[in-house]
Design goal:
mainly beta; 5-stranded antiparallel beta sheet; two-stranded antiparallel ribbon; 1 helix; 7 strands; globular
Length: 100
C-alpha cells in the first residue's frame, strides 16, 4: 500500500493514537509495520458505507468507508469496526493518498 502514498512531501497521516502523526513515507511504513506486529491474524470484511467525492477539476478526491474485522491478539479474537477517511490527489495517471 506504500506505493499509493503521494510522491510529494505534503503527506499527513494520523494513526489511532494522538502521538501518531506521520509526515513521510518512511514514518508511515514504520507505523504500519509496528501496528501489524500486534496481530497474529486479521480477517477483514467487505468495505461498507463507502462515500467518494471528487473535485470538479478531477484532481482531488475524498473517500470515507468502514471495514469490519476480526483480529487474533494474544490468543483472543477481537472484533472491531475500522473507519477510514482519506484525501487523494491525481498525480500523473495515479490517485495517491495525501492525507489519512
Amino acid at each position: 500500500m506504500s506505493e499509493m502514498l503521494t510522491k510529494s512531501s505534503d503527506l499527513t497521516f494520523f494513526g489511532s493514537d494522538a502521538a501518531e502523526v506521520v509526515r513521510t513515507r518512511s514514518e508511515w511504513e514504520t507505523l504500519m509495520r509496528n501496528d501489524w506486529q500486534l496481530f497474529e491474524t486479521t480477517r477483514f470484511g467487505e468495505p461498507r458505507n463507502l462515500a467518494i467525492q471528487i473535485s470538479d477539476n478531477g484532481k482531488v478526491g475524498s473517500i470515507v468507508y468502514e471495514v469490519p474485522d476480526i483480529s487474533l491478539v494474544e490468543g483472543k479474537n477481537i472484533e472491531s469496526l475500522d473507519r477510514f477517511a482519506m484525501t487523494m490527489r491525481k498525480e500523473g495517471d495515479a490517485w495517491r493518498i495525501v492525507q489519512g
